[in-house]
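Retro notes, item 3 of 5
We never archived the inputs for the adenosine-5'-triphosphate complex last cycle. Fixing that now. Sequence and ligand:
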Amino acid sequence: MSDKTAHADRESPEQVHIAAESSSGQPPRATGSGADGNPQRADIDTRKWHAESIDDTLRALAVDADEGLSPDAIEKRRESFGRNQLSQGAQRTMLQRFISQFDNLFIYLLLVAGVVTALLGEWLDSGVIFAVVLIIAIIGFIQEGRAEQALESVRDILSSDAFARRGGRKRKIDAKELVPGDIVHLEAGDRVPADLRLIRIRNLQTQEAALTGESTAVEKKTDPVEENADLGDRLCMAYSGTLVTAGIATGVVTAIGDRTEIGRISGLLKDVETLRTPLMQRLDAFTKVLSVVILGIAALTFAVGVLIWGRDWAEMFFAAVSIAVAAIPEGLPAVMTVTLAIGVERMARRNAIIRRLPAVETLGSVTTICADKTGTLTRNEMTVKTVRSGVRDIAVEGVGYEPRGGFTSDERDLEIEKGMLAHEMIRAGLLCNDAELVRKGENSDTSFWEPEGDPTEAALIVLACKAGFSPDQQHKDYPRLDSIPFSSERRYMATLNHDHEGNHVIYVKGAPERILEMCASELGEDGPGEIDKDAWMARADAIAGHGQRLLAVAKKDVSEQFEITEGEVERGELVFLGLFGLMDPAREEAIDSVRVCHEAGIKVKMITGDHAATARAVAQELGLKHTDKVITGRELEQISDQDLPQMAQDVDVFARASPEHKLRLVRALQSKREICAMTGDGVNDAPALKRADVGISMGQKGTEAAREASAMVLADDNFASIQRAIEEGRTVYDNLRKAILFILPTNAAQALIVATAIMAGLVLPVSPVQILWVNMITAVTLGIAFAWEKAEGNVMKRRPQPVDEPLLTPFVIWRTLFVGAILLIGAGTLFLTHNDADGGTLDYARTMAVNGLVMGQIFYLLNTRYFSAPAWTAEGITGNRVVLIAIGVCIALQLLFTYAPFMNLLFETAPLDALAWAKCIAVGIVVFVLVEAEKALARAGKHPFARDFSQPAENKANREA
Ligand code: ATP
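Structure as it came back at the time:
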């Protein structure tokens, strides 16, 4: 459902009649102007524009409202005023970011341990602890920087556009390019791009909460107000950053960038996007609980070591701290942040721009997508194929915007001539129209026609050209005096034109049902006669049955008047002219995407403003599931709140629906626990977009209001991008789960080794500093690799992930104990078999235990790349470059740890021989084989805790049914 107005219904030149000096044809000279006629910056910055008349404002800014600024003036003003941009608010400095890394429970613990060990004179240990703290902080700093950078680059993609009149033409420009004196057109849904003195308005309302905190809309005027009026009372101004909620307007830019009112209020400017998502919050809460439990265990170990085994309390204290640090998954939040940020970046590359971070996760859980039809599921490339007047059914040849092709009726060629009903219909379509057809390309071989504005309207221009009309000539012969723009609620557009001879006429085009309601007669060959509405509805159904989009045209001759109102148009006195049928082909890629969504257990629903029969035909072409029943907006209104949820689930096609219907549908679906993604582009779609679990707006034809309400913007307006974003969302979610599945068991193993030894009164197989080392290098190298993991082959073959799934599923607990135990036994055995045996030393045995542990983790990393698919394939081992790099770095660090003399000194390690390495690697292989065996069991459906991984969406759904 679109407010096509975004492109199409900007005021046309005929509408702007401003009593300024413009009539002289010479741009006025600024009152406080410099030698070149351009206004002086000091003068512009200090004036009270709200108290100035329109004439004075235009004069001061040296601009003609009909012409706009010349390229020369724009250039000069840009030099002296700069760009229309707010300077960056105070951002966190690098130093602040670095310092914030130390603000963390684990770091405090380590710092305390470092100080205590230093006080005890253990300089080496304390040095190592401080070094570890520093390295953890540096790594956190780098990772966070990486994440921030990824999000920043995505944010930059969303620049906003403005419609400005320059050099006599209205143009779409980047809002950053505006300069004082630019003439800007506004309409419902726009964000005001700079501070404007309004010069012409029609029912303009703005919402100025960003500036005044007042959330009710303000009705604007053009008369000047008192000089000392409050910001909220300056009704003739539209301020940068506020939203247009209704109406249209033209204004002249009085301030840009930091000189605007919003620019002056610092602090309000940056809506800081936090890096926390629901999953991360749950994870934070989970880690807190886990930390308390682990601290308890560490304290217990300390007590057992000191009280039962009588060991040195300082040594036990350090051991207890190392247990805590090793067991607590402190690296997890960083892994999450990076994973999410990389997900956001990947989605942006696939045309889905995330505005709110939590959407990344929610996307993975979406169960229903409600999509607009036009432009999202279809190409929005309109061609008129049928012209249906009261007497004839005419077929139109040609496709696309090339104005070439003839007409046939009853399979015979037909010339559209003056006097024919079709001739008047086509003229109505041409005049009641805001689009333009422009020729693009260098030479005649490569040039092509492109619509500027609403494609539906552009198609009517193409039709007129095919029928021999010259659009420019028609606009000259029948100039426009006034217009009512199209909106999805109104479902029609109207214009008032005259023929220079005192004959004024209202042309209206819109949805047939709507137009028929407003008609009292129909035009026959002998003038207006009685209208047969049922016959017209039947004709409309016949055209819609071919999947064509419908448009009706009507007119009304009026006496001399210069304005039209909705009341007059809707009074029911129009003369019906006929129907157009437009073809808008489905997007090929949307057909594929719908299929993929169905396979992934996601329902796809189409909510369109179009006619029911058109909607059904397109839905069938797209392969939607339940197309036998189509509910229209009107029927929807009759359905009670109790019945709606079930119906919303059962029906896939909603026609003639308007934005309020969307809101009701989202609510109904959510009450059935559906996780709903909803698309929208108009200003009135904002509530539904906000309400949806993932509101999706259109980057190309969407309004700023819709964008701001949405969690994600589609850069290409394409349904296929939603499906891809969901795929990425699922991948991100999978990667987060994989990171958890990797980190928890490895952390458990690290801590278990020390804790078990102390509890049993044995020599520690791994010293506290060594544990810190292992924890640090594996957490930063191995754990982080999941952020770059690609989607598994079956991501879109599984049902959606439940949003409230607990983090600690029985499976994760099982895996933690299973892998933790293997690693404990493996490393423990390596230690025990080499300590004191065959002349081995403690250092040597510990070095083996550490390397055995790390090898185990490296192999387990490969296991975890796939939840249930086998990892021993070439792809499984070499498929993720980052995993290979992480493993390479990890091995290099272990070699350093084992062989570098200073490391031998610091960590009390000893160089190993080849056989020892073979044994360490063997531990890794044992882990790998056992976990693969476990996964095979899961694939066979015999794993008591891992049932979910093997079920494809369809089977699962069938089973549930
Ligand atoms: P969707 O909601 O899927 O984008 P849509 O584009 O058909 O579908 P609307 O833009 O609300 O939805 O249009 C509803 C109806 O209004 C159309 O079916 C058509 O009959 C009519 N219409 C569309 N564009 C115009 C226009 N520019 N001028 C007049 N009538 C229009």
